[in-house]
């Protein structure tokens, strides 16, 4: 019998962890001489009360959905893929090549091509760590960390020496052709009388992220492959005894994980910058770890956690703009969320388990 209801594990524990992180963050804000209440009001107003703020929040959330799903899929196979940053960088290279060298007639076809290019390049970058884990026993955490640095160096070399236009100074590609430009939320929802999402980078790739959530749910909980991935994650010995090929599961799980991380580049490279730039990941590969932890590696939880972190990113920008609170404080809040949802999970879980066990005994 479970020690607590499923809803408590999925909702209550992350909520309490978030409140603890918020409480400690409020103490930090007080320590630097600012009001936590006013800071929170400013974050809400800047990130949620204006359509432009929502546009930035959804833009950041799109990145975090893809990288959070990437971490979640690997985690179900008992692997900790922290190489989303590098996989997204290489995914951006796939997006750039598809957009620059294929003559697309319309963005609706270009986004399909760029999604495939991003997924293939991201999966290819995850393949070597997957092979080393499956065949050589090299720990996936170590190899994916190493490949983040290799990806950054490779992207720098390609942008500076191969894809940079002649005479340009920026380490970036040329602007993508007009037919590949994705419609922004401003293009889609604004009217002459209602100028919504003005200047915000949110674009149609947000809906691609939502579709990815649904597909990952179908994969993990409604397919044979997903069952094998979860079985392998619960017990590698038991799964192998049942005839599940562990090597196949490790490689396929990492390929899917890398593909999801790579697809983040559709949002940043094709949707926002409309060219490949050096810092296109913006740290989203690492934020995906916190998103997956807080979302309990479930696609719906990842979606909600990504929205929260999108709010933190946009709200943090507002704080840095209008107060003396540095934007680095948002990094502190993110670290506290990771601390409580990951490393200190048992600090919240164990008291709740005792509470629910006591309630059951009292009812019995």
Question: What's a concise summary of this model?
Answer:
By secondary structure, the chain is mainly α. It contains 15 helices and no strands.
Output the keywords.
364 residues, mainly alpha, ABC transporter involved in vitamin B12 uptake, BtuC, globular
Overview of the molecule:
This protein has a domain at 61-305: Orthogonal Bundle (ABC transporter involved in vitamin B12 uptake, BtuC). 45% of the residues are buried. The protein is 76% helix and 0% strand. The protein has 364 residues and is mostly helical. The chain has 15 helices and no strands. It has helices spanning 6-31, 36-48, 51-76, 84-101, 107-136, 140-163, 185-189, 205-222, 224-234, 236-241, 246-273, 284-294, 299-322, 328-343, 345-363. The mean pLDDT is 92.
Secondary structure elements and their pairing?
Elements: H1 6-31, H2 36-48, H3 51-76, H4 84-101, H5 107-136, H6 140-163, H7 185-189, H8 205-222, H9 224-234, H10 236-241, H11 246-273, H12 284-294, H13 299-322, H14 328-343, H15 345-363
How large, in whole angstroms, is the Cα Rg? 21 Å
Major beta sheet summary: none
Order of helices and strands: HHHHHHHHHHHHHHH
Query: Tell me, what's the shape?
Result: globular
Rounded average pLDDT: 92
**How large a portion of the residues is in β-strands, by DSSP E?**
under 5%
| CATH fold call of one domain | ABC transporter involved in vitamin B12 uptake, BtuC
Name the poorly predicted regions.
none
Q: Can you name the CATH architecture of one domain?
A: Orthogonal Bundle
In DSSP terms, counting alpha (H) and pi (I) runs of 4 or more, how many helices? 15
Structural class, judged by helices and strands? mainly alpha
Distance between the termini: 14 Å
Share of helical residues: over 70%
User: What is the CATH top level name of one domain?
Assistant: Mainly Alpha
- Number-wise, the strands total 0
């Amino acid at each position: 019998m479970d020690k607590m209801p499923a809803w408590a594990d999925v909702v209550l524990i992350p909520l309490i962890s978030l409140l603890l992180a918020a409480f400690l963050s409020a103490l930090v804000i007080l320590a630097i001489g600012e009001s936590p209440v006013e800071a929170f009001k400013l974050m809400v107003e800047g990130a949620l009360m204006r359509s432009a703020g929502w546009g930035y929040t959804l833009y950041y959330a799109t990145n975090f959905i893809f990288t959070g799903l990437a971490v979640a899929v690997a985690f179900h196979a008992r692997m900790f893929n922290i190489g989303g940053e590098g996989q997204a960088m290489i995914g951006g290279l796939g997006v750039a090549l598809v957009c620059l060298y294929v003559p697309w007639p319309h963005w609706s076809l270009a986004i399909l091509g760029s999604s495939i290019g991003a997924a293939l390049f991201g999966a290819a970058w995850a393949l070597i760590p997957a092979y080393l884990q499956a065949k050589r026993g090299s720990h996936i955490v170590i190899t994916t960390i190493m490949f983040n640095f290799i990806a950054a160096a490779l992207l720098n070399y390609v942008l500076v020496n191969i894809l940079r236009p002649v005479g340009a100074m920026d380490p970036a590609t040329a602007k993508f052709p007009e037919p590949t430009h994705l419609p922004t939320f401003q293009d889609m929802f604004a009217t002459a009388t209602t100028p919504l999402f003005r200047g915000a980078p949110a674009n149609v790739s947000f809906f691609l992220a939502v579709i990815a959530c649904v597909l990952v749910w179908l994969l993990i909980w409604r397919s044979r492959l997903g069952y094998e991935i979860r079985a392998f994650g619960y017990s590698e010995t038991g799964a192998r005894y049942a005839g599940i090929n562990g090597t196949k599961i490790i490689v396929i799980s990492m390929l899917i994980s890398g593909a999801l991380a790579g697809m983040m580049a559709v949002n940043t490279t094709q949707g926002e910058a409309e060219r490949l730039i050096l810092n296109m990941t913006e740290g989203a590969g690492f934020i995906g770890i916190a998103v997956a932890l807080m979302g309990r590696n479930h696609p719906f939880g990842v979606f909600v956690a990504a929205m929260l972190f999108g709010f933190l990113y946009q709200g943090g920008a507002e704080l840095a703009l209008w107060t003396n609170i540095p934007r680095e404080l948002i990094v502190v809040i993110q670290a506290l969320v990771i601390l409580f949802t990951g490393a200190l999970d048992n600090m919240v879980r164990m008291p709740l388990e005792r509470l629910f066990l006591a309630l059951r005994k009292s009812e019995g």
